[in-house]
Structure formats: structure tokens, C-alpha cells
Amino acid sequence: MPPGITTLAADAPTLSAANTGFMLICSALVMLMTPALAFFYGGMVRVKSTLNMLMMSFISLGIVTILWVLYGFSLAFGTDTGSVIGWSQDFVGLSGIGVTELWPDYTIPVYVFAVFQLMFAVLTPALISGALADRVKFTSWALFIALWVTVVYFPVAHWVWGAGGWLFELGVIDFAGGTAVHINAGAAALGVILVIGKRVGFKKDPMRPHSLPLVMLGAGLLWFGWFGFNAGSWLGNDDGVGAVMFVNTQVATAAAMLAWLGYEKIRHGSFTTLGAASGAVAGLVAITPAGGAVSPLGAIAVGAIAGVLCAMAVGLKYKFGYDDSLDVVGVHLVGGIAGSLLVGFFATGGVQSDAKGLFYGGGLDQLGKQAVGVFAVLAYSLVVSAVLALVVDKTLGMRVDEDDEISGIDQVEHAETAYDFSGAGGGAASRTSAPAPGPAAPTNKKVDA
Prior knowledge:
Blueprint lengths: L16 H28 L5 H28 L2 E2 L3 E2 L23 H19 L9 H24 L4 H5 L7 H19 L15 H20 L9 H28 L4 H18 L5 H18 L2 H5 L7 H19 L18 H31 L6 H6 L1 H6 L12 H6 L17
Antiparallel strand pairs: 1-2
């Protein structure tokens, strides 16, 4: 049987069609976030890396789904062992679960909980890929995903959300993934890039985004999908907590976008579309752990603080010399840390739990718990991810050849290009084809260029 608290038969929850339908919709919204992330990242890279960036996210849907069914759900949410990992034989292959069997103390089936959490597991390694743009072998990346979710994500998910997990039992508040998703992915990204090194031309070539409209599309879809990511993490819609999380998600994202743009205008003199998209994502990241503990006013503060901090942090790669291609460290690691720690200041004690932050009379107790969760996940993911990258690098090799990187990773790894300009408008083909026999055009007639 799955872990949980035994209840009296009279008090046992019954299946709710409303909550079940709500959670299936939320699961679909979270699934959408992975292709949305692919668009977001795909627009930020140069033309020659677009398809590779899309595929680095998309392949996670395949690999992690299969591993989750085989053993991932059991490791993350099975019966606790030593407060560090789970295991339930019924969850292996999802083979021992009844069709209407409920997740303990909730009104949704185990299958629904499993598929909702699956979408989190899919998205998290995809987040890492943005830091590695332009230079990683696709086969090596696929192997890294399989190793990383097994050794890092599944155990950390158990620590944070699994019954008996040590951070869960400590009382760390992480409503929807500030530690398990964003700090985990951001720290992993830093660990991997320290192993594989910089792109050819880092700090020399401009490496500007090739399609800002694609970036904005991805950011908009991420924002949309994030409502399922956050509001769905309460696993039901009976007591209003999910509704508060929904509101706080919108509020914090708006505040972070405005704060990022304000910082950008003061610092660089312009309001950029890339800044708007990045600020929105920073706000989404920061409110993910905090949104069930703070008020809407607190959400404004969380979003604004994260927007400024993340905008400042993205420039650190040039100062310290690590090549975080698409600012995964600056947005997800820093945003995740900010949101998780700010719980210790802004938790009201009146939403998801009675835990109060410093500004609401709770002292430093919750802040201390949040700090333990932040730095435990950061340290574990950073070190283990670097080791896994080193193992893959020494076996398959993580990086493409320098010549292949310069010529374009799309053609080398996928034998395709994102855009075919050869036939744009039909003009190119007419200039390269032999004209049909016929009379010569009059010399006074304009020739199509």
C-alpha cells in the first residue's frame, strides 16, 4: 500500500470527480510546460542550435516518462526508507495500483497523483538543458537525463514531498518545487557546465537570441502552464488554498516582470522583450515554493525581490567565467533560493499551514528550516550532477567537436536545420533552375529580383 496516515473508515475520503478532473487538467498544463520551455530556450539560441535546443527538452518527455513508470514513482513516493528514499513494489511498473485506489488522505486516484508528479519529473531535467546550449552531444545528454533523474531528482523529490522524507518531516515549505525542481535544476546546471566548459567564442561572439517572438511565445505558454503546476500542487480544490496559489502565481509573476524591466531600464537604458520574458519566468520560479504560504501582498514582494535579484545574477557568469548559456543558474537557482528563503519572512500562517515567517511574528524558526532545505538540495545536486557529467564525459564524451560546434550542432546531431531559406518566397528556386524555352523578355520590362 502507498504511504500515508491510517484513517477510520467513517472518516476516509471518497473519490471526487471534480478534484480528479481538476488534477488531470493540471497535469496536462504541466505537460505543456516542457514544449513551452523548448520554445523559450529555442528562441534564445542562435539559428544553428535551434533544433538541438528544442530536442533537449522534448526528449525528456520520452525518457523520464518510461523511467517514472518503471521505478521512478516508487523511488520518489513509495514507502519511506531511512528518510532518504522510497520504495513500494505496487508502484513498480504502476502494476499494483487499483483503478479507483485513492492517494492517502486525498480524493484523487493514485494514478492521477502519479501522472501529475510525472510531469514535474519530466520538466526538471529539461530546465538544465538551457545552460548547456550549443555544445553537448545529444546521445550523451539523453544518458545524462536518465542517470540524473534516477540519482538526483527521484531521491530529492522524496526528501521534499514524500511521506517520511527528511526535509518533509523537518517542516520545510515547498509548495510546488522551489527546492525539488528549480534549485535542483539550477545547481545541476552549474555542476555540469563546470565540467564541460565554455562555448567556443564565449565573451567574444555576441551569441544573441535568434527569435525573440519565439522566446515570448514560450514564456507565455510557461506562464499559462504554471497555473496547473502551482495551483494543482494542493491536489484538490476544496478549501481555497489552490485558489490563493493561483492568484499569487499571477501577482508574483507580474511583479517580477516589472521589477526586472525597471532594473534593466536603470542599468542598461532599455525595456527589452527578453527582459520581460525572463522576469516573468523569475517570478514564476520564486512564487513556486512560497505561493501557498504568503498573501497576495507578500507575493508582490516575493516577485519584485526575485525579479531584481535574478536580473542582477544573470551577469555573474561574465564576472566569474562560467558559461551558463541561457541563464539557468541566474534565473532558476537564484529565483528558487529567493522564493524558498522568503517563505521564512512572508509566511502568514493562515494559508497552507500555521507556520509563520519573521515578519508575521514567527521568528527565525521557519527561515532556518528553509535554509536547511535550500542548501541541502543545492549541495547534493551540484556535487552529484558534476560527478555524473564527468562519468558521461569520460565514457561517451559530453561535448561535440569544436569544428562541429562552430558549424552548427543542429546539422551535426540531427541532420536538419530549423529554417529552410532556400525556397523562401519561391524566388530562390527560380534563380537556380534553368528557364523554360520561350521568347526573350522585353528589355523594358522590370525583372523580378
